[in-house]
Amino acid sequence: MEWRSSIFSREKRAHLHTVIILIVSVLFLLANPQISAITGNAVTTVFYYPFFKLRDKISNLTKTAEDNDALRASLVELSARLQFCDEASQENRRLRTLLGFVPPEGFKIIPAKIVVVSGSGVPNTVTINLGARNFIRENQTVIDRNGIAGRVAKVMDDYSTVYLLTEPRCRVAARVKRSRELGIIRFSMSRGMYLDNVPNKADVHVGDTVISSGLGGLFPEGLVIGVVNNVESPERGFFYDIGLIPAVNFNGLDELYVLAKED
Fold first, then answer.
1. How far apart are CA 215 and CA 222, in angstroms?
2. CA distance 202 to 192
3. Residue range(s) defining the domain that contains residue 144
4. Quick check: is 136 in a domain?
5. What is the pLDDT of residues 103-151, one digit of tens each?
6. Rounded to an integer, what distance in angstroms lies between the CA atom of residue 43 and that of residue 54?
7. Is residue 74 part of a domain?
8. Which of 116, 221, 227, 245 is buried most deeply by CB count within 10 Å?
9. How, if at all, do strands 125-128 and 107-118 pair?
10. If you ran DSSP here, which 8-state letter would residue 165 be given?
11. 17 to each of 5, 13, 22, 27, how far by Cα in Å?
């Protein structure tokens, strides 16, 4: 027991000597400004400098991320502007094409935007952004830059429903432009667009242009409807089966124009 006690007392004395040496060293360093400065620089270099560098790197990474976000936002904005400019350019070309169109005498053109398209398989009705406030009336003719698209069927204050020529309720009194033969434009899902009620002795050929006749007073005379692509004479019957390719692409409608009578 005395031997163990002697060992413990020696260890305590050794620890005490170490603590005293450290305290004296610190006091010595603090008492000497040059040594204190050198020690401070060493401590800063060894312990704090790496953290400063890490902080700078994190700050730089944050700034880079913010710059990247700003660049991405700018690219999206530029892309949107380019798309808008391209669409405006295409619209400008379409309007320039329309400038060559002379409306029937006594009519003026009112541009309209399509807001809703309806129909199964082939669109048969559309809603436009014009209504009674814009002097739109029922049964006014609606065209695009290629020909007759349909007629106004229902008018609200700010919108109107248009029956396209693909709607069975929208029929047009028509004639073959070359030979002046008369008929009625109809549409069915099974046959597509066709010229009906044309006698099988009439002068009609593939490639003939069909226009509105003006009869009945619903559609003005002389507007393009389509081109004949098929003429057949049934074995029984008195009328041709005449198929047409519509002048208007009903699956690609864009701008429409309402023909309104001039005041």
1. 11
2. 21
3. 106-263
4. yes
5. 778 888 899 999 999 998 899 999 999 999 999 999 999 999 899 999 9
6. 17
7. no
8. 227
9. antiparallel
10. T
11. 18, 6, 9, 15
